[in-house]
Design goal:
Layout: H1 3-29, E1 35-38, E2 44-45, E3 51-56, E4 62-71, E5 74-82, E6 89-94, E7 106-115, E8 126-135, E9 142-144, E10 150-152, E11 156-163, E12 167-174, E13 177-180, E14 182-183, E15 189-194, E16 207-212, E17 217-221, E18 225-227, E19 233-238, H2 240-253, H3 260-282, E20 303-306, E21 310-316, E22 319-326, E23 329-332, E24 338-340, E25 345-352, E26 358-365, E27 368-375, E28 377-378, E29 385-386, E30 391-394, E31 406-412, E32 415-417, H4 425-437, H5 455-460
Helix pairs in contact: 2-3
The protein binds zinc ion (ZN).
């Protein structure tokens, strides 16, 4: 052998050793098959349910996912996915629609995932999960237990119903909005829902929906007696003095280089929509039981400045520059008047929120919440339990407010509804307490407030025939 041939063969041996060592390293580095996780946990499964299996390998890539059903002696392949892109995580959607199973068939769902390592003697590490399951094709039956709800545009209503089986989710669907129902002690479901202020009478078609644990969905029309109503038109002149006064506050809400008017329009439009979305999100944070009792308290000794769902035009030098819907009541009292909690509940938000300025939101349970906005001072904390009348802060001008006042709102699952109904003992008795009672649910009974408590408000306390349009002083 020549000297150079010796050199080459030595180099070859070194390379081979390195290669083998590298292989051994990989072999021992990844000895585990991929992790398999599911989008759902289940003991039974609907053939309609789209399921997602996520396969993750912490050390190498996912090479294949094999999903099959074992039923008696049969083996039915559902899907086989193979991958060459070397990703550490893959998600596989599947359903059992074509598995050839019948209702109540008991079977095994078998998922095998293989990684792209040198483990398993070069075939990759495997992991297999076997789930014993039952096929369930029967959606929950829905039986309405309370009489036909009466609901006005912008207002609320309640319904009680029973379900034939356990559910994952149930409630009233109004187009894209969902109002969850809550199971009561007697097993019935109670749901508050709204006729949204922005919806035409003909478009308001509430449905009861129930999704069982297996993934079967039942949806039925919910009959309601609906009442249309017209909301007030209103206009507000925007002055340079107002824009100057709010300049710093508005700039902190919508920063950037723009004119005062452009910034005002961004706050009043885009930010307003973002704030509404935040309230919808907040509406999900609700107790599964009623925390309130009797009618809601109105800010004492306060004049009404604006009503619910007033259609507001904004004028600049006589020209209309914007139009928005005012949601809630504007109540003006003394400057920095103490603000009482309208009813019992838990504080779920304190802080600044765009056009609402300094804001407190109280959760009263079952999706019902109240909102106190434009405050100058907040004296409660998140999570604090409040009784009706407890002071939560002081009125002010923070956010999109010209003069000192309280903007008071009532929300159902985060959607603003007219507060008028909830200020009215009779409305609550007829539309909530009695509806629940006829379906065997005892809500905390109405306790008449002593007449000494703000008698001036008693007279003004809106009843069903009062319209916000009549309330402007
Ligand atoms: Zn307001």
């Amino acid at each position: 052998m020549t000297k150079s041939a010796k050199k080459i063969s030595l180099l070859f041996i070194v390379l081979l050793t390195l290669f083998l060592l590298g292989g051994l390293f990989l072999l021992f580095q990844d000895r585990e098959g991929p992790q398999i996780t599911f989008s759902h946990t289940f003991e039974s499964i609907s053939p309609d349910l789209p399921v997602f299996v996520t396969v993750h390998d912490s050390a190498s890539s996912v090479k294949s996912v094999d999903i099959r059903v074992r039923f008696q002696e049969n083996e039915v392949p559902i899907t086989l996915q193979t991958y060459s892109e070397g990703k550490q995580e893959q998600t596989v959607p599947f359903s059992l629609a074509n598995a050839g199973l019948k209702n109540n068939d008991v079977f095994d769902l078998e998922i095998t995932a293989t990684d792209g390592s040198f483990g398993g003697f070069g075939f990759g590490n495997k992991n297999t999960v076997i789930l014993p399951l039952r096929l369930d094709t029967s959606p929950p039956r829905i039986s309405i237990k309370s009489s036909t709800p009466y609901v006005r545009k912008g207002g609320a209503a309640c319904v009680v119903y029973s379900l034939s089986k356990e559910v994952r989710q149930t409630g009233v669907k109004v187009n894209e909005l969902f109002f969850p129902a809550f199971r009561q002690d007697n097993g019935e479901y109670l749901c508050f829902f709204a006729f949204p202020y922005f919806m035409d009478n003909k478009d308001f078609n509430p449905q009861l929906a129930a999704l069982d644990r297996a993934g079967n969905l039942n949806t039925i029309d919910l009959p309601v007696t609906r009442m249309n109503r017209q909301f007030k038109q209103d206009s507000i002149a925007i002055s340079q003095a107002f824009l100057d006064e709010k300049a710093a506050e508005f700039e902190s809400m919508v920063p950037g280089d723009m004119s005062d008017i452009e910034r005002f329009l961004a706050v009043n439009g885009r930010l307003r929509r973002e704030n509404a979305a935040a309230l919808l999100e907040m509406g999900k944070n609700t107790a599964p039981r009623v925390l309130w009792q009797g009618s809601f308290l109105r800010l004492p000794r306060a004049a009404s400045r604006a009503g619910f769902a007033d259609r507001r035009s904004y004028l600049w030098e006589g020209q209309k520059i914007d139009e928005q819907t005012h949601l809630g009541f504007d109540l003006a009292s003394l400057k920095q008047a103490p603000v009482p909690a309208a009813n019992g509940g838990t504080v779920v938000f304190t802080g600044s929120l765009g056009i609402y300025g300094k804001l407190v939101v109280i959760d009263h349970g079952l999706g019902l919440q109240s909102l106190y906005s434009h405050l100058s001072e907040i004296s409660v904390e998140n999570g604090q339990q409040l009784n009706k009348g407890d002071i939560l802060g002081k009125t002010g001008t923070s956010g999109m407010a010209g003069g000192d006042h309280l903007h008071f709102g009532i929300l159902l699952s985060g959607l603003e509804v007219t507060p008028l109904e909830w200020l009215d003992d009779h409305w609550i008795k007829d539309n909530v307490i009695d509806r629940a009672k006829e379906a065997g649910i005892a809500l905390p009974e109405f306790i008449p407030s002593p007449p000494a408590e703000a008698p001036a408000e008693k007279k003004k306390a809106p009843v069903r025939k009062a319209r916000p349009g009549q309330k402007r002083p």
